[in-house]
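Would you mind giving me a polypeptide sequence along with per-residue structure tokens?
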Amino acid sequence: MFPRKPLVTALAVVIVVLATAVSIGAGVSTNDTMYVTFNQPVSLPGVSLGSGTYIFERLDSTEHSVVRVLSRDRKISHYMGFTATVPRPAGLKHDQVISFAEAAPDAPQPISIWWPENSTGQQFIYPKK
């Protein structure tokens, strides 16, 4: 008979190697990352952001565009959700990175579209009222 201890140890090593390989492949990569600073409160679907600097990232996805908004130090994820890809209007300045929607009085300005690149933007999807 074979001794059990070396067999169990070898099996455990194989499982750890396979689990590590799978977790490395499951990482999230980004297409676009941008630091955006606001001098007044703003909002995204379901969340308000105070004035400050935030990281906007468009994540790789096969079918949908997913945007994640993080704190500047990447410790807090404030928002992650699906967005609609929209073309940049012809008259929009190329240095404009955010478009806002109308806000109710005394409410944070809602972000409508984030423009991470020159030709397309990511339009946030708000619930219907």
About this structure: The chain has a mean pLDDT of 81. The two ends are 71 Å apart (CA to CA).
